[in-house]
Amino acid sequence: MQLLVVGAGEMGQWFARHSGADAVAFADRDSDTARRAAAGLNDAQAVPLDTDERFDVVCIAVPMSAVADAVAAHAGKATAAVVDVAGEMRDSVAALRKHAPDRERASFHPLFSASNAPGNLPVVVDAEGPTVAALRAALSAAGNEVFETTPEEHDRAMETVQAQAHTAVLAYALAADDVDSRFHTALSEPLEALVDDVVGNTPEVYAEIQSRFDGSDAVAEAAQRLADADASEFADLYEEAGR
């Protein structure tokens, strides 16, 4: 299997390593990034973003906001399958369907960073076939829990597990004062660890998630309900949270 990965960042490199491909090429708008990615993987090569070479599989590994344009530009370089690892399903699947109507198509979303792999890996298989099946098998063999979903189910879940979760953690970080670590409780200490996990990454990635998925306003509204509640109302909200 010959694989072209468009977007040679962390997740593009992760996909290439675990795809089961016999030959890998990286293309990126930053040619140095593509060359570094290729140097880190045995027998991989860097190719220009406008290459006219053809590959069995093209994997789009770019930010969510760039997926549609990237699929339009590069889907034609695939002879068998076009897939993505962008992190959302609605727009990705629509772009795959539009620009690769006669290819196998799948949208994968690794629910982890490459440094924390393996992990849960939802996939929407929009047009199945042997190539997508081989990719799924390779990713499963790498220890990932690959499971099928729909664009609607996936994106609805991301509102909670990404947009709302990130908002809650960052809001705590913005509101919290610095305290002596000896004061931390069994609840606040892991919250501090979550803050460190979130703020140690790339803010643009989190900004894209907040822009793409609803959920932040619901967290803000819930926090305001708690802040405004009297003792009785707070108890009711506490019980509601437990349900």
TrEMBL record:
- Mind telling me what this protein is named? Prephenate dehydrogenase
Native source species: Natronomonas pharaonis (strain ATCC 35678 / DSM 2160 / CIP 103997 / JCM 8858 / NBRC 14720 / NCIMB 2260 / Gabara)
Record keywords: Oxidoreductase
Tell me the ranges covered by the Prephenate/arogenate dehydrogenase domain, including all copies. Answer: 1-243
Does the keyword Oxidoreductase feature in the UniProt annotation? yes
Keyword Methyltransferase tagged: no
Q: Name one GO molecular function term.
A: prephenate dehydrogenase (NADP+) activity
Question: What does the entry give for GO biological process?
Answer: tyrosine biosynthetic process
What Enzyme Commission number(s) appear in the record? 1.3.1.12
Do you know which InterPro entries this protein is assigned to? Answer: 6-PGluconate_DH-like_C_sf (IPR008927), NAD(P)-bd_dom_sf (IPR036291), PDH_N (IPR046826), Preph/Arog_dehydrog (IPR050812), Prephen_DH (IPR003099)
Q: Coding gene?
A: tyrA
Pfam families referenced in this protein's UniProt entry, alphabetically: PDH_N
EC class (word): oxidoreductase
Taxonomically, which superkingdom? Answer: Archaea
